[in-house]
């Protein structure tokens, strides 16, 4: 299969010019020339914006319970500086109870700090900082992809699916207890790019995103790009990537 990595993500949005302007003005994306597509780049990561002409995209908030790709997490080397920057831009943030970052325990052994940005264009951007290793400072407080978040109904099968595509589990699945819920979580990596796969263990069957805003992953490797097909994957009951 070659060396795989997440080249980018395609988003389904109604207001492409507005989303493009918001991402470039606030989150350090710049437009990149790719024929036939609107493509924005931040560090090692690209967003491709596709117009939702028929207004089909699902209207789920970041805390709604549904299956599929749920968020894009950009990386920071200084979570407090990233929060301060976003507040200075007047962005709509979801923070911890004390006004600082939220905490996701046990992942990578030490947990992660993060917060959410509600875009207003149908997608959520998470900003996260690993705690198990020091990230070199960047020119900007938010730079590149940390992970893409994927909520599933069968964690083991999902991990196996992405391992078959060339991803590797970063650690054994961990169990966290958040807001009365039991959450199973694992990260799978391809190169420096990561998918966070998680399941709410205590919840009944969840709804499926029929027209997800995070429409597809675009995988790269060995000088090729491969868009992911929007196929049904039985173990997740969602639109997920296949080559």
General description of the model:
The chain is mainly β. The protein has a single domain, classed as 2,3-Dihydroxybiphenyl 1,2-Dioxygenase, domain 1, CATH 3.10.180. The chain contains three helices and 19 strands. The chain has helices at residues 16-26, 79-88, 155-164, and strands spanning 5-13, 30-34, 37-42, 45-51, 66-75, 92-94, 102-104, 112-118, 124-130, 145-151, 168-169, 174-178, 181-190, 193-200, 207-208, 214-221, 224-227, 231-233, 238-240. Strands 5, 6, 7, 8, 9, 10, 11, 12, 13, 14 and 15 form an eleven-stranded mixed sheet that branches. It has a six-stranded mixed sheet with strand order 2-3-4-1-16-17, with helices on one face. Strands 18-19 form a two-stranded antiparallel ribbon. Residues 223-243 have low confidence and may be disordered.
Distinctive features:
243 residues; mainly beta; 2,3-Dihydroxybiphenyl 1,2-Dioxygenase, domain 1; eleven-stranded mixed sheet; six-stranded mixed sheet; 3 helices; 13% helix; 45% strand; globular
For the termini, the CA-CA separation is 10 Å
- Gyration radius over CA: 17 Å
Share of helix, binned: 10-25%
- Identify the CATH class: Alpha Beta
Unreliable stretches covering 5 or more consecutive residues: 223-243
The fourth-level CATH homologous superfamily is 2,3-Dihydroxybiphenyl 1,2-Dioxygenase, domain 1
Shape label: globular
Number of helices: 3
For the record, the count of structural domains works out to: 1
CATH topology, which one? Answer: 2,3-Dihydroxybiphenyl 1,2-Dioxygenase, domain 1
- Secondary-structure element pattern, one letter each: EHEEEEHEEEEEHEEEEEEEEE
CATH architecture verdict? Roll
Provide the structure class.
mainly beta
Q: Please tell me the overall pLDDT.
A: 81
What is the number of strand segments? Answer: 19
Largest sheet report: 11 strands, mixed
């Amino acid at each position: 299969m070659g060396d795989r990595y997440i080249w980018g993500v395609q988003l389904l949005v109604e207001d492409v010019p507005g989303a493009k302007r918001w991402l470039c003005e606030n989150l350090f994306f710049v437009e990149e020339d790719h024929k036939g597509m609107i493509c924005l780049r931040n560090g090692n990561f690209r967003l491709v914006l596709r117009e939702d002409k028929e207004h089909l995209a699902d209207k789920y908030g970041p805390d709604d319970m549904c299956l599929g790709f749920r968020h894009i997490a950009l990386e920071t080397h200084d979570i407090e500086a990233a929060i301060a920057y976003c507040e200075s831009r007047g962005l709509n943030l979801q923070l911890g109870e004390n006004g600082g970052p939220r905490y996701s325990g046990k992942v990578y052994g030490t947990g992660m700090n993060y917060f959410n940005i509600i875009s207003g264009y149908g997608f959520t951007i998470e900003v996260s900082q690993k705690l198990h290793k020091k990230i070199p400072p960047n020119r900007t407080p938010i730079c590149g992809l940390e992970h893409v978040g994927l909520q599933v109904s069968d964690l083991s099968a999902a991990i196996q699916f992405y391992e078959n595509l060339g991803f590797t589990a970063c650690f054994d699945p961990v169990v966290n207890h958040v807001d009365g819920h039991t959450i199973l979580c694992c990260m799978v990596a391809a190169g420096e790019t990561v998918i966070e796969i998680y399941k709410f263990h205590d919840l009944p069957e969840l709804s499926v995103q029929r027209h997800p805003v995070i429409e597809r992953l675009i995988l790269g490797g060995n000088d090729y790009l491969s868009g992911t097909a929007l196929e049904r994957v039985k173990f997740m009951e969602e639109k997920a990537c296949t080559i």
